[in-house]
Specification:
The complex is a heterodimer of chains A (about 200) and B (about 190).
Chain A: H1 2-16, H2 25-32, H3 39-42, H4 59-63, H5 72-75, H6 104-171, H7 173-187
Chain B: H1 6-16, H2 25-28, E1 39-44, E2 47-52, H3 53-59, E3 72-77, H4 83-86, E4 89-91, H5 96-99, E5 106-109, H6 111-118, E6 123-124, E7 128-131, E8 140-145, E9 150-156, H7 160-165, E10 171-178, H8 181-184, H9 186-189
Parallel strand pairs in B: 5-8
Antiparallel strand pairs in B: 1-2, 2-3, 3-4, 5-7, 6-10, 8-9, 9-10
The chains are: A mainly alpha (about 200), B alpha+beta (about 190).
C-alpha cells in the first residue's frame, strides 16, 4: 500500500517541479516520499549479543531429563545420623514383646533339642574319657614292661657276679684264705651301738 | 505368673537335662495323656515353678504381688529379677522331687556319709557305697541314701573309672543341693 501511495504523490509533484530543475531531488523526495522518520536513525540499539549455543554436556542440558524422586522410606536412611545398636532395631511386622511357649508340642521340641545336645555332649565326654583311659593303660603297661626288663637285667648282673665269686673260690684257695683273713680282721673292727 | 519364653525354656531344660535322662519328657507330657493333669512351668518373680495346669489357672486369680509360691520351685536366680537377662540360675533342693525319678546317674552313700552330706559337705570316696557305671566327669548326679531315698544332688568330681583309683579321702561328688537346706535355709527358701 505505501509504495502505491507514494508513487501517486510523486507523479503529482513531478508535474509541478518540471519548471524548476535546480531543486534537489533528494529534498524533493524527502519531502514528498514517505520515508522512515529521521529520528529512527538516532535510536540507540543495544549492542548485539552473541548467542552461544550450549554444549550438550552443559549442566542445563543435562538437567532436562526427568529426575527420579525417592521417597524417604525408599532411601532407608537412619533417622538420626548415628549408629543404631542391633538390639534397638526392631524388625518390621513382628509381634511386640515376648513369645511364650506353653503348648505341649513346642515344649517337647525344645526338650528334644536340648536332650539331643546333652546326649551328644555326654557321648563325647565318654569317648574322651575312654581314649584317655586307653592311653593311660598303655603307658602303664609300657612302664611295667620297662621295670621288668630292668629287674631282669639287674638279676642277670647279680647272678653273673655270684657265679664269678663261686668260680674264683673254686680256682685258688690261697686267695680266699687271704680274703678270709682280711674278713676276720674286718670282723674285729670296733663297732658302736646305741642303747 | 507367666509362661516361659522359648529361650528361658531352653535354659531351664538344659539345666534339668544335666541330671536326667530321656524320661524328662514325662515332666511335660504325662504318660497317660490326660490333659487336665498336665504339668507346666511358670515364672513368678525370680522363680520358676512346676505345677499342674489346673493350679496354674487358679493362680491367675491372685495378684502377682500377693502370690508367694505355687507348686514346686524348680530354680531361683543368682541375682533376683535378672533371670531373663543373665540366664544364670541354680536348681533348688525343692527340684529334687522332680529330678530324682528321672535321674541319669546316681550315687548311693553309706549311713556314715549321710550326715556330712546333709550338713553341706561333698561326698568322699569313703562314704560312697556304689555309683552308676560309665559316669563321666562333671556330670550331674543324684545322691541317694542306702535305702534309696534321694538326699540331694551334685556334680561328679571324677569319672567312675578314675574314682575307683582314688584314695578314700578324695572327693567323688561336689555337692550342689542337699535336703539339709530345708532347715539351714528355712528363712529364705520359700520367701521372695
Amino acid at each position: 500500500m505505501a509504495p502505491t501511495r507514494g508513487s501517486s504523490k510523486g507523479a503529482s509533484s513531478g508535474g509541478a517541479s518540471k519548471g524548476s530543475k535546480g531543486t534537489k531531488p533528494s529534498t524533493l523526495s524527502s519531502s514528498s516520499r514517505v520515508s522512515k522518520p529521521s529520528s529512527k536513525k538516532n535510536v540507540k540499539r543495544p549492542p548485539p549479543v552473541e548467542v552461544k549455543s550450549k554444549a550438550r554436556t552443559a549442566p542445563e542440558n543435562l538437567k532436562r531429563k526427568k529426575k527420579r524422586v525417592y521417597t524417604e522410606a525408599e532411601l532407608d536412611l537412619p533417622k538420626l545420623n548415628q549408629i543404631t545398636p542391633v538390639g534397638v532395631v526392631k524388625p518390621k511386622g513382628k509381634k511386640k514383646g515376648k513369645v511364650f511357649v506353653d503348648d505341649q508340642e513346642g515344649m517337647m521340641t525344645i526338650l528334644a533339642m536340648v536332650n539331643a545336645e546333652k546326649e551328644g555332649q555326654i557321648e563325647s565326654k565318654m569317648m574322651k574319657a575312654r581314649q584317655l583311659e586307653e592311653i593311660r593303660e598303655a603307658k602303664k603297661a609300657e612302664a611295667e614292661a620297662r621295670m621288668k626288663e630292668k629287674k631282669s637285667k639287674l638279676d642277670a648282673v647279680k647272678d653273673s657276679i655270684r657265679n664269678k665269686k663261686k668260680n674264683k673260690g673254686g680256682n685258688d684257695k690261697g686267695a680266699e684264705s687271704s680274703s678270709a683273713s682280711s674278713k676276720s680282721a674286718k670282723g674285729k673292727r670296733k663297732s658302736v651301738s646305741f642303747a | 505368673m507367666r509362661e516361659l519364653t522359648e529361650e528361658e525354656a531352653k535354659v531351664l531344660f538344659s539345666k534339668l537335662a544335666n541330671y536326667t535322662g530321656r524320661s524328662l519328657n514325662n515332666l511335660i507330657a504325662p504318660p497317660e495323656g490326660d490333659q487336665t493333669e498336665r504339668h507346666v512351668f511358670r515364672l513368678q518373680g525370680s522363680r520358676v515353678y512346676y505345677l499342674p495346669l489346673r493350679l496354674a489357672n487358679y493362680a491367675t486369680s491372685i495378684p502377682r504381688a500377693n502370690l508367694l509360691s505355687a507348686g514346686t520351685i524348680i530354680r531361683t536366680n543368682y541375682e533376683q529379677g535378672k533371670f531373663t537377662k543373665t540366664m544364670k540360675f541354680r536348681l533348688h533342693i525343692t527340684a529334687l522331687s522332680v529330678i530324682a525319678p528321672h535321674s541319669r546317674y546316681k550315687v548311693w552313700i553309706k549311713a556314715n556319709g549321710e550326715m556330712p552330706f546333709l550338713y553341706g559337705g561333698n561326698v568322699l570316696k569313703a562314704h560312697a557305697a556304689r555309683w552308676s557305671e560309665d559316669c563321666p566327669e562333671h556330670s550331674g548326679v543324684v545322691v541317694y541314701s542306702m535305702n534309696d531315698e534321694p538326699l540331694g544332688f551334685g556334680v561328679t568330681a571324677r569319672s567312675t573309672a578314675e574314682a575307683k583309683k582314688l584314695e578314700p579321702t578324695g572327693i567323688v561328688v561336689f555337692r550342689q543341693a542337699d535336703a539339709g537346706e530345708y532347715l539351714r535355709e528355712e528363712d529364705s527358701l520359700f520367701t521372695a
